């Protein structure tokens, strides 16, 4: 029963995030990502994540094996992907800074992991989500993780115009020299 509640809460919050990022991309309403300031969109967004993340984690732990029973290799690969993804995401947040990572304007940062990806936090989180599914074999984790990955990937698209407005030509040069997610292009300097 608890897993159904956690899954339902995860679905509702992921659905709200998805609607918000689509609204932002379509320019049909308020900018819901990135926020630009700590207004109502900022607080609603992080309250939502504060509910969503525990629901996702509960689902990971309570629904293991509902789609397939992972063997030791799958569990090992999954745990490796979770750990690697979280290390990348946390390192990227530390490099960019917490405020800027939460959608508050800061300096354009193009070093560290950001030399190789404009969205290393997304790369890390999607990797961890994939690892969670592989390690658990959970149908609910597959569904929630898929929605979360979609939201994260669309958020990277949604923030492009905002970044262009904030940083102008500097961002355009960075964007042209650095892959959105993963690649071998390396910016000069």
TrEMBL record:
GO cellular component entries: endomembrane system
UniProt-listed InterPro entries: Phopholipid_MeTrfase
Name this polypeptide is given: Isoprenylcysteine carboxylmethyltransferase family protein
Membrane topology: Multi-pass membrane protein
The entry's keywords: Membrane, Transmembrane, Transmembrane helix
Superkingdom field: Archaea
Signal peptide (from-to): none
Compartments where located: Endomembrane system
Phosphoprotein is among the record's keywords: no
This protein's record includes keyword Heme: no
Transmembrane segments: 6-28, 40-61, 73-94, 125-158
Gene3D superfamilies associated with the record: 1.20.120.1630
Organism of this sequence: Natronosalvus hydrolyticus
């Amino acid at each position: 029963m608890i897993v159904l509640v956690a899954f339902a809460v995860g679905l509702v919050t992921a659905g709200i995030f998805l609607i918000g990022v689509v609204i932002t991309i379509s320019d049909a309403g308020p900018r819901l990502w990135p926020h630009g300031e700590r207004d109502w969109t900022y607080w609603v967004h992080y309250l939502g994540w504060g509910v969503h993340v525990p629901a996702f984690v509960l689902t990971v732990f309570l629904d293991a094996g509902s789609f397939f029973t992972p063997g030791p290799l799958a569990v090992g690969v999954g745990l490796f992907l979770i750990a690697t993804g979280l290390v990348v995401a946390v390192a990227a947040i530390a490099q960019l800074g917490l405020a800027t990572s939460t959608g508050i304007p800061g300096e354009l940062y193009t070093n560290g992991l950001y030399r190789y990806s404009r969205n290393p936090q997304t790369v890390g989180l999607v990797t961890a989500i994939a690892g969670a599914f592989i390690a658990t074999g959970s149908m609910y984790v597959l569904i929630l993780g898929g929605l979360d990955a979609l939201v994260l990937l669309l958020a990277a698209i949604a923030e492009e115009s905002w970044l262009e407005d904030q940083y102008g030509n500097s961002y355009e040069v960075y964007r042209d020299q650095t892959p959105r997610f993963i690649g071998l292009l390396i910016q000069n300097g």
